[in-house]
What does this fold into?
Amino acid sequence: MPRPPGHGPDFEVRRQKIVDTAAELFARQGYAATSVNDLGRAVGLAKGALYYYIGSKENLLIEIQSRVLTPLLNRAREVAGLDESPLTRLRLLSESLLTIIFHRLDHIWVYEHEYRSLSGDELDTVLRQRTEFERLVAGILSEAAGQDMIRAVQPRLATLEFLNLHNHTYQWVRTDGSWDPAFLAREYCATLFRGFGAADHVLEAVEERAEAFKRERPGLPLDPEAVWGPVPVAG
It folds into this structure.
């Protein structure tokens, strides 16, 4: 959602708070059941003042979707392009996906349940972004199979298995519990990679490389909402 001309950072901070409140309401009540009046009461604004910040109710839905998809897709492109083995890249991508799920539970609920409430170009954009993310995962899986790191798999089906294992985490996870994104990524990938036919020694090597990557490259955090620094060029 573009910022209207002439508005400073205070306007943006207030607008972002409205977006986050909308995500919470949409996740609890549903997009269709939440009225603009409901949202206005929640943020303490009359309808006219609320529209000044959001433009329309559908704009809120677009912004919530973007808050998840944009950083996730950017991080997925960066991880897919790393000079690491395919399975290590999948492991890092797993942790990135789980990190944004932990950080944006309400947004993820809206992302999963309400994207079909969009229409026209906005829906087409979301669907293209979802498809690109799936293609990145499928491409890495195909690389792993091509290098005999896993058994031959159907990339589309293997991608759906990867996504199905991750995408329902928001329904049950407790962000204050003992299972953080790194732990779940390690367990999920062990389950997937063994199911895909990876040997135990391969799993151990993947975990060693994933930990080494995070230790050696603190400027490349897996959190999709954090900015990656410049990647040093090997000399």
In short: Residues 91 and 186 are 7 Å apart (CA to CA). Residues 120-146 form the longest helix (27 residues).
